[in-house]
Each structure stands twice: as structure tokens, then as C-alpha cells.
């Protein structure tokens, strides 16, 4: 079964907490304190500071009242780690779709696990989109119900397959774009190639349409031939023309 690994481990190890009524800053502080207790977080690492720094760069809102704040670390070794916060009353997160955030997936992302984080977040977004009751997340009653829903997202292979055809790729590409640009600038192309090869073609097409002009050819050249053909067919004509002229 193709589980969402760090999410599954957070559930199994009891890192799913109920957040009291609070604003965004307080919710992030409480969730950081929960995640900081895991062995994966190095001593002295400023987890909350890293999360707030990432939030200042781009809003980590997925959709349907779900957000994924995270902190990046320069450590070349280490394990991807996650903690989940549930807010029954909802948190004003700064997103523009009118939803209050009720679920926060906080990740610690060492440099060695960056492509793993990108893949996990993609799976999570597709699993949420495939959930027929995703519009009812605001109505979750208790922590046990939350954990049951999280397990379905984490373990559901069929949900994941269905979601690959339905996921809101523009939302996901907007969330992952800063990470992808950073991987390009740091020359971490093998990690990026592994991540791209595992994504659905519509998602990659959206990413290629979103990145800077100078990076489009680079992303496209990383794709296996069959996937590249499918991605190219999904691009609109101006994007196809621009890609061909630059190649």
C-alpha cells in the first residue's frame, strides 16, 4: 500500500492535537511545540522561526480549510517529520477563498528529504481532493473523527488514484513553486527529476506553465519521453510554441 509515510507516522505516534481557539500565530506556536518533541528535530533548530519564515515567503494554504506550514533545514541528513493540528473553531489564515483553516499539517523538511516532502504533499492534496466529503471538514466533531479521516487519506490507494485526475493543480503548483525554484537554483536536479517523474501529467503541465520562462525547458527536459509527450499535449498553444522555440 502506498501510504503517505510521514503523515502515517504522525498518526501512529500520537502527533495529532486539538488546537484551542487561537489566531494563526498561536496555532503555529502550539503545533511547533508538538513537532519539536520528535527525535527528528535537531537540538537547537528554530522550528517555529523556520515555519514563520516560510509563511512570510508564500502562504501555505492548500484548499478546503487545510494548510501545510513547514520549516526547511539545511541539514543534509535527517528524517521528514509531521504533526497535525485540528482547530474545531477554525483559524483565519489569510487565504482568499473564505474558508477558515481547520486542519494544519506542519512538516519539518531537512534538505535530504526535500523531494520526499514534495511527493508527500502532492499525494496529500490529491487524497483530499478525492474525498467526497472534503467540503464538510468544518463539521468534524471530535479528534477521533479527525484521526479516522486522516487514516483514510494516508492509506487510501484508490482515493489517491481518483485524485490524480481531479486535483486542483493550480493550488498545488502555487504552493510548491518556491521549493521547485529553490531546487533549480541549488542545482538539486536529480531530486527534482525524481519528484517530477512521480507526478500526474496535468500537475506537471501546470507547473511548467507557472515557472519562469528560463526554467520551463529545464523542467520539460527532465521528463521521461512518454510523460513529456502527455504533458506537451496538455499545454496551451502559446506555451507549446514558447517551449519549442526555447528548445
What is this structure, in a nutshell?
By secondary structure, the protein is α/β, with parallel strands linked by helices. The chain has 12 helices and 6 strands.
What does this structure look like?
- With 247 residues, the chain is α/β, with parallel strands linked by helices.
- The protein has twelve helices and six strands.
- Strands 1, 2, 3, 4, 5 and 6 form a six-stranded mixed beta sheet that branches.
- A hairpin with a 2-residue loop joins β2 (61-63) and β3.
- It starts with a helix and ends with a helix.
Offer a few descriptive terms.
247 residues; single chain; 6-stranded mixed β-sheet; globular; alpha/beta
Give the SSE layout.
Layout: H1 5-12, E1 16-18, H2 24-36, H3 47-57, E2 61-63, E3 66-67, E4 70-73, E5 81-91, E6 101-110, H4 114-130, H5 143-155, H6 157-163, H7 169-185, H8 189-197, H9 201-210, H10 213-221, H11 225-234, H12 237-246
Parallel strand pairs: 1-5, 3-6, 4-6
Antiparallel strand pairs: 2-3, 5-6
Amino acid at each position: 500500500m502506498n501510504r503517505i509515510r510521514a503523515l502515517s507516522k504522525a498518526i501512529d505516534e500520537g502527533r495529532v492535537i486539538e488546537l484551542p481557539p487561537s489566531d494563526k500565530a498561536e496555532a503555529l506556536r502550539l503545533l511547533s511545540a508538538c513537532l519539536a518533541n520528535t527525535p527528528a528535530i535537531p537540538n537547537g533548530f528554530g522550528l517555529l522561526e523556520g515555519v514563520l519564515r516560510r509563511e512570510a515567503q508564500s502562504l501555505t494554504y492548500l484548499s478546503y480549510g487545510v494548510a501545510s506550514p513547514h520549516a526547511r533545514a539545511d541539514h543534509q541528513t535527517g528524517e521528514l517529520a509531521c504533526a497535525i493540528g485540528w482547530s474545531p473553531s477554525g483559524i483565519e489564515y489569510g487565504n482568499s477563498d473564505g474558508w477558515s483553516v481547520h486542519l494544519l499539517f506542519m512538516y519539518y523538511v531537512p534538505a535530504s528529504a526535500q523531494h520526499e516532502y514534495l511527493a508527500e504533499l502532492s499525494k496529500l492534496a490529491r487524497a483530499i481532493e478525492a474525498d467526497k466529503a472534503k467540503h464538510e471538514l468544518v463539521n468534524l466533531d471530535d479528534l477521533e473523527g479527525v484521526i479516522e479521516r486522516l487514516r483514510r487519506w494516508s492509506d487510501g490507494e484508490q482515493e489517491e488514484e481518483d485524485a490524480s485526475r481531479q486535483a486542483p493543480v493550480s493550488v498545488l503548483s502555487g504552493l510548491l513553486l518556491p521549493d521547485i525554484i529553490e531546487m533549480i537554483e541549488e542545482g538539486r536536479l536529480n531530486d527534482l527529476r525524481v519528484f517530477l517523474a512521480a507526478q500526474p501529467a496535468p500537475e506537471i503541465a501546470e507547473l511548467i506553465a507557472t515557472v519562469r520562462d528560463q526554467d520551463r525547458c529545464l523542467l520539460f527536459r527532465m521528463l521521461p519521453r512518454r510523460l513529456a509527450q502527455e504533458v506537451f499535449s496538455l499545454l496551451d498553444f502559446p506555451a507549446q510554441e514558447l517551449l519549442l522555440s526555447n528548445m
